[in-house]
């Protein structure tokens, strides 16, 4: 049984169809990357999965349970299992770094505060922010905020992690570190859906890569296929343009 | 002329008149205080009603909109008169003072509600989305994310409104309530010179509103400096 099973997903903003029948099935512990031109609906797909934008048609099933986005309890159960790192990070502006990471595990998941604090500090140290625990988001660089957002998502102990442009604000050295973290998560049997423009990263970390354009998944396969021998002309054009420079 | 005024001072400040002025000042102070406290509390609830998304709150939302939009547009005096004569027509046996308390509170509620709503709306939706995805309840989102970010945007305008509001309580004199302005009128009618009487009234108003204005600017500075509630500008 697929861990995350998406069938015929359609989503619109007002009257613009942004997702036009997405089918995507991800196994437990699998890392799938979404690539595609800007505006192709990658972020929108993550928003729909996490219940921020109700789908107009189609289904999303998490660990065999179809999410009913109109039902709070069902949505709540699914959100217990997933975490998302937003493209714009969306750290809470009124909380310092440590509190950003701790607030949900302590207040919402009702886990022991001391334990959570130890975990949060360890996570923040792992992403290189041990000296920024008391800083506020607006005192951090984009890359630092992104790493806090990663730590915040991981501290929730999700089964599925959705990462939107997780390497966009990172310097090459940090990309390597995030890469290591992501690989480690996958080894822990966490399922990952990653949106990235960093083709080196995608190629190295993903089990499968999905190329999205015009609200559809145009082609999907192992990195070797997508980057080496793409079948669709649109994939070829996109990949050669991205890898070209 | 000035020496004439100075000579009048001991005549004006007899025990009887001083008590009258102090009583009146106390009434102005309590009208203002009650108006501010009730306004803040009810204005807050009203703004929540206006921002609620759930369909079951829609009737409440419409009422809140009507309330805020009407009361902010009608002159204070008219509102007061409607309450005053409305109570008579409906047979409520309330004193002018009680009516004044009610109508001033009703008015400040409308103004505060609008300020609070603007402050809450200025918090970026993406902040609430981040909370929602982490399974924050509506209450948790409000308490931990939205309100702390809205406070610094809400408090300064609320306090400048309150400072204006204190002076608006003077209109209660039109309903015969013995507050500062009314006391001024009474003493003037008794033959004391208008300049002396109203200068005294002015000083008393100042004494009442100045601490509030100072407190407001203190809060503004504190909130501006405090990282905990520093407002984030929408991009
Ligand atoms: N809140 C919104 N309201 C209306 N339209 C939106 C909204 N958010 C996104 N869109 C539109 O939906 C389409 C897909 O946007 P989306 O953010 O999913 O693209 P993306 O693939 O993530 O792009 P990028 O690589 O630039 O992040 C775009 O055409 C965008 O203009
Ligand atoms: Mg995007």
UniProtKB/TrEMBL annotation, chain A:
It is found in: Cell membrane. Its main location: membrane. Pfam families: ABC_tran (PF00005). InterPro entries: AAA+_ATPase, ABC_ATPase_HisP-typ, ABC_transporter-like_ATP-bd, ABC_transporter-like_CS, MetN_ABC_transporter-like, P-loop_NTPase. Keywords: Amino-acid transport, ATP-binding, Cell membrane, Membrane, Nucleotide-binding, Transport. Belongs to the ABC transporter superfamily. This is Amino acid ABC transporter ATP-binding protein. It comes from Acidisoma silvae. The lineage of its organism: Bacteria, Pseudomonadati, Pseudomonadota, Alphaproteobacteria, Acetobacterales.
Automatic annotation (TrEMBL), chain B:
Residues 25-213 form the ABC transmembrane type-1 domain. It holds the Pfam family BPD_transp_1. It is found in: Cell inner membrane; Cell membrane. GO terms for molecular function: transmembrane transporter activity. PROSITE patterns: ABC_TM1 (PS50928). GO terms for biological process: amino acid transport. Keywords: Amino-acid transport, Cell membrane, Membrane, Transmembrane, Transmembrane helix, Transport. GO terms for cellular component: ATP-binding cassette (ABC) transporter complex. CDD domains: TM_PBP2. The chain crosses the membrane at residues 20-49, 70-90, 96-116, 192-213. It comes from the Bacteria. It is a multi-pass membrane protein. SUPFAM superfamilies: MetI-like (SSF161098). Part of the binding-protein-dependent transport system for glutamine; probably responsible for the translocation of the substrate across the membrane. Belongs to the binding-protein-dependent transport system permease family. HisMQ subfamily. PANTHER family: GLUTAMINE TRANSPORT SYSTEM PERMEASE PROTEIN GLNP, MEMBRANE COMPONENT OF AMINO ACID ABC TRANSPORTER. NCBIfam families: HEQRo_perm_3TM. This is Amino acid ABC transporter permease. The lineage of its organism: Bacteria, Pseudomonadati, Pseudomonadota, Alphaproteobacteria, Acetobacterales.
